[in-house]
# Entry
Amino acid sequence: MAITRKERNELVVEPTQKLGLLDVVLRLKPVKDEFPDTDRGLGELDEVDLSQSDRVLHPAERRRV
# Structure
């Protein structure tokens, strides 16, 4: 972002201080829109057993094991 102004016959462009993420978030206003139910139509969640493996396998990988 920059501030632009004219002084006599010159165009002056000054950089503004860049806001950090926290500053931006604190300036946001609450959202009043209704959000759709994105989970509607999805099947049941897969049961995950973390005690048997070092990592969680993707469903396509589980079929190969």
Notes: The first strand starts at residue 2 and ends at 7. The CA atoms of residues 57 and 63 lie 10 Å apart. The radius of gyration is 26 Å. The mean pLDDT is 83.
